[in-house]
Specification:
With 268 residues, this protein is mainly alpha-helical. 71% of the residues lie in helices and 0% in strands. It has 13 helices and no strands. α12 packs across α13.
């Protein structure tokens, strides 16, 4: 009985996956904590902190020469997309993730990504920090992205915010794999230094911003409901869900479908 119920729930989920809506951030940038008020400004160019930034930039260049395998991972991490996040984190997470196969986890990460972008935009354009490869008139390990990087400022690292926030969210869904998930999350930020796109302090600030966004999202009711659905979906996919969890998941999916249909009807 449980097996058939699980199959029915998964079929319903797959049908819903084809109708994913646009990203809806859990908070606007005005509702998120202002990084200018609590996060340190980027280092000036004469102090010890900036000297460390330069040392890490040189370390990244050395890694590109000596560790080809790690550099290949860093190049993959340079693709800023939710698809990249789900692909790179599937192995440490312990379950293959995609929009089609895990639509509730996808929805959670999608709206979290939009929230992360809201927390980082203002400080980037306030500080207007130049990226390291531009300062040294060199190239990154991802030259195809350099035109876009030149138009976008360095502090904090948006890639790092996305990677670290995703790691925190996935660790909450599957705490048994938290160690490997968080390790991959740290690597994701480190990759920005290795390819030469960011200073180390950009990455450090990105991790702080991700943690703040993660904490703030937990105060949002829609986030709480979506996190519960993502956790239930994970347990169903892993064959761990109880009959009560299966019924609760199915009920929540049906409720959302009805609300969406009613909203369309009201809009006409």
């Amino acid at each position: 009985m449980k097996k058939y119920m699980m199959m029915a729930v998964l079929m319903m989920t797959a049908m819903c996956a084809s109708a994913q809506s646009k990203p809806e951030p859990y908070f606007s940038f005005r509702e998120l904590p202002n990084m200018l008020k609590w996060c340190p400004a980027p280092p000036d160019t004469v102090g010890a902190a900036f000297a460390y930034d330069i040392m890490q930039y040189m370390w990244g260049k050395e890694m590109r020469l000596k560790n080809k395998e790690r550099t290949e991972i860093a190049i993959r991490d340079a693709v800023y997309s939710l698809e990249c996040i789900m692909q790179e984190f599937s192995e440490p997470f312990g379950l293959k993730m995609s929009e089609e196969e895990t639509p509730e986890i996808y929805r959670l990460l999608r709206d979290a990504k939009a929230t992360c972008e809201n927390i980082s935009g203002f400080p980037k354009y306030y500080y207007k920090r130049i990226r390291p490869f531009m300062r040294f008139h060199e190239h990154t390990a991802t030259p195809q992205f350099e035109p876009e990087l030149r138009r976008n400022f360095s502090y904090p690292s948006g890639h790092t915010i996305l990677g670290w926030c995703s790691a925190l969210l996935l660790s909450e869904i599957n705490p048994e794999r938290a160690d490997t998930i968080l390790e991959r999350g740290m690597m994701y930020g480190e990759s920005r230094v290795i390819v030469g796109a960011h200073w180390q302090s950009d990455v450090d600030a990105g991790r702080l911003a991700a943690a703040v966004a993660y904490a703030r999202m937990h105060t949002n009711k829609r986030f709480q409901e979506q996190m519960q659905l993502a956790c239930q979906e994970f347990r169903i996919k892993m064959g761990l869900a109880t009959n009560e969890e299966l019924k609760a998941y199915r009920k929540a999916i049906e409720k959302r479908a009805k609300e969406k249909a009613q909203a369309k009807k009201d809009a006409k």
